[in-house]
Structure prediction request, 592 residues.
Amino acid sequence: MNDHGETPQRSVSRRGLLTASGAAIVGVAGGVVLGRTTATGADSASVAPTARPRISEENPAGWSSHQTIDFHGVHQAGVDTPEQTYATFLGLNLLSASAQDADSVLRIVSDDAARLMAGRPALGDTEPEIAEVPARLSITLGLGRSLFEKTGRADQVPEYFAEIPTFSTDQLENKWSDTDFLIQIGSDDPLTLAHAQRMLVKDLSTLTTVAWVQAGFRSPTPANEGGRASRNMMGQVDGTVNPMPGTPQFDAVVWTEGDPAWAAGGTVVVIRRIRMLLDEWDRMDAGAKEIVIGRTLDTGAPLGGTSETDEVRFDVLDENGLPVIPSNAHMRVAHAESEEEMILRRPYTYDGGFVNGVQDAGLIFAAYTADPRKSFIPMQERIAALDAFNRWNTTIGSSSYFIPPGCVDGDYLASDLFT
Amino acid sequence: MMSGETRLASGRAFICTSGANGSTWSKGLKRSKSPLIIDDTWVKAADSGMTSGFGVITNPTNKPIRVIGARSPRFAGVVQLHDVAMQDGTMQMKEMDGGFVIPARGSLELKPGSEHLMLMQMKQPVTAGEMVPMVLITSDGGQLRFRAMGKVFAGANEKYDDMGAGMNHGGMN
Prediction:
């Protein structure tokens, strides 16, 4: 009941639904007529349909419900896209070894992505209303090495799409390993993301099976005002050193070039599932934590500095003649030794519940690189050998995919690969 | 329950079979490319028997245009124009006697539970992601060729009896 003693009704008029001819229903976008019965008891069928409830442009968290990311373009979205609050990574396997089936997957994902990212329902969308709130939805498709091999396209694997070795500190669980396809879905609205995921999985249900799902989230609030990095579950400012989208450095670090021609403008993603040993980390005092990482906890400034973006100086010594940032500090070991070694970090937090009473939480660490042989692999080898932080985290999953370049309207992703 | 055979036996003039009634559009009318536009086209994936096709037909002209038939020779022996409506207390599919009229400067959405294309006597499966070539035929001899993507879809079923009974017992409010 509202203030005027009326009972607002939003229910579907059964009479209207059952008697309306298809043509009458068609006149209303989305299909269902929402009537509002007034206190005078007017027949709901005679009341003009009200407009769809308005969704405010800005929600309290500051992002826009209706903001869209372009699907069509030189590169796929979801890489240079500013991180959405939620991201889910899906590993899928092709049921057959058929190149035609693989091509169908590319068509279906491209069509669904183009529509859903634009805030429009997918074809045959059973919940079209959810699709109308895109909230910066991006859908990104990756191809696994096994897909190339099983479909007879091994000769099309780009040389730079190298296998990621198992590092000495890895304790990999098979359930997070390489698959034929990756679908990465990001959105600021978790319901939108869940809908896109369900639509894609449903549409691919006769062609693929889902091997794993890794759902992640991040704080939409940067750790420092004006900064880009937010905090992870250990409270650290995470993702400070990243190339800036739109710069020549970003293009060189992320996008592939050279042979094969169809693959130019793509990227390689490495997805690492890193479990944080939070209960162990809790035993450490703040000062000890900072020494392990090499940055302060409050601002994320490098030790010896005052703000997150301060230039990192490894040669500064303390009063005892020791490096202010220890030689085995995480940020020092993970620091790119050349521009060629840089990667794009796009980490999300996962919360996997409790395993034997211990919380299973950590990072879905997604690294994007034009050539992991020159960047991710040497960096990770150094981390495995030296990083003091290894004691408080364990990599339990690892997979990598080639993210093909984008496509123009009317085409679909990697359309030359299987035809 | 309706059977495809019954509908076929009742065959009406607008059905574009290749023989018998002689498709009205092919006699004495010059075939031409129709000004109609069709978007968002898809077909429910199916192995055999019959299935449904959907899309949004837009008429950019100042005159109504009547779609009188459809064909998909590679996939279906017959394509009918159908509607879904209440009949004897249940939701049932039926052929559209006059075809689909696309209003001047307007559009018609073919969708599950409403007007749709019925592909019958399927010649081969429609699989997910497959592009099914189809053509719509209008009363003035126009042809609109398009391709529709095969999609997995649980709805758009041939029997509506159960759903109709369920709806009559309420539960939607």
Q: What stands out?
A: The first strand of chain A starts at residue 86 and ends at 94. The two ends of chain A are 61 Å apart (CA to CA). The first helix of chain A runs from residue 14 to 19. Chain A touches chain B at residues 11-12, 14, 17-19, 21-23, 25-26, 31, 101, 103-105, 107-108, 111, 123-124, 126, 202-207 (CB under 8 Å).
